[in-house]
Amino acid sequence: MHIIFLNPQGNFDPTDSHWAEHPDFGGQLVYVKEVAQAMATMGHKVDILTRRMEDKSWPEFADEFDSYPGFETRLRIVRIPCGGPGFLAKEELWDHLGEWVRNIIAFYGDAPPDFATGHYADGGYAAALFRHERRIEFTFTGHSLGAQKLDKLGTTTANYLEMENRFRFSRRIAAERESMRRTSRIVTSTRQEREEQYAHRLYAGAVDASEAGKFAVIPPGVNTRIFTADDTPEDAPVHGVLRRRLGKTPRPCVIVSSRLDEKKNIIGVVEAFAASAALRRRCDLMICLRGIDNPFSEIRRLSQSEQDVLGPILARIEAAGLRRQVHFANLGSQNELAAAYRYLSRTGSVFALTAFYEPFGLAPIEAAACGLVCVATRNGGPSEIFEDGSGVLVDPFDADDIARGLVEALENHHDLATRGRRRVLAKYTWRKTAEAYLEVIAAAAGQGGDPDAPVPELDASGLIEDYLSRERSPG
Q1: Is 49 left (phi over 0), alpha (psi -120 to 50) or beta?
Q2: Taking a C-beta distance cutoff of 8 angstroms, is the pair 149, 178 a contact?
Q3: Which of 333, 341, 372, 380 is 20 to 30 A away from residue 65, measured at CA?
Q4: Helix H or strand E encompassing 188
Q5: CB under 8 Å to 395, separation ≥6 — which residues?
Q6: 65 bridge partner residues
Q7: Per-residue pLDDT tens for 285-314?
Q8: Count of alpha carbons within 13 angstroms of residue 13, beta-carbon side
Q9: 452 near 245, Cβ under 8 Å?
Q10: Residue 360: pLDDT band with limits 50, 70, 90
Q11: Residue 448 has pLDDT above 70, yes or no
Q12: Residues 50/14, Cβ–Cβ less than 8 Å
């Protein structure tokens, strides 16, 4: 089959430029790349469609075509222009998606693909437009939804205009609603995502979360070429650094490797460590950063938003007298991170993700694939990943419960590490993700409703204002 992935925001190139360094280059790009590569490995022709930029500040994305090493014959990165040559943030793309889709139609001409997958709200809406013009069925993978973001940011009738100007909620939620209506299947990572996020009142009339046949629960996977328990020749530099830092007979560590985002609740692990003498007796704490070695002296090299998150963490470490037991690791790539996981797994270390809410939880399964025991938030995807007891679930709002979970993981390291790795390899690989997508594609013909129904302009402002006035008015 010839399958396309529609992902206008961010971008793709052979070296994964800017990933994890810019809010538009987030986890959905990893997801698209990995599923596309798995499909290509299985013999399908795959195009990742994104936006072309001819901007000296973004030189990696100027060429029309690109590819990944080893995938040149079956997987293309195709950059389609729209909205001018410069970079556009995802909130600025909405007015240009029609142009983008028209250019996609012109690019394929009389040889359109067999099937499309739309990613995030903008990719889903583009897929809806493409289906209307060319009758190509598509799946919609939201990754995250605007209604939940609107709620989490505390949007009310009083601040709606400010929030709308910044985040374009009226465009995003309207795009999600059209994607949901017209897709053959909505792909979610967990049952909880379907049952909770798609049941939001702002999606009423566009989708019924209780209609299981409209959804396909397809978990993301681990790149087992990188995240494996087996050493690689490239591990030596990372292992050497850790050996020098932790000593010849290293204590176990609690390792935290999340972006500096308040929602990830890194400070929750620090609070648990500071409050639990039992935990401090058993282990040290390691926080992985990117781009700096010593955050106490180099914090100003980070963005202001990252400084706002890291500053209180450093202050708590200092106030609790923990500097000798807290280590920092500057790990600049997935390969370096995996090498660190492998080294630390042999010291009896555990991985912690205590986000207030985690839609899926790719980071814990990457750590588990390398032999670490995982302690993860019970809120969101990890509750399904580790529902068999192969990891430890904790309340991210309770430092004592985080400490309890970490001690439990340290005490049962060998058993949990074995079970966690077995669980990941059996259920959470990108090949299994791709196989599940292909099953959905095979059954998707004619499931997307009337393709002749016109696609309306994007504006859910009235719907949102009514929701806010009824549900989220101040007081």
Answers
A1: beta
A2: no
A3: 333
A4: strand 185-188
A5: 377, 378, 401, 402
A6: 78
A7: 999 998 899 999 999 999 898 999 999 999
A8: 18
A9: no
A10: confident
A11: no
A12: no
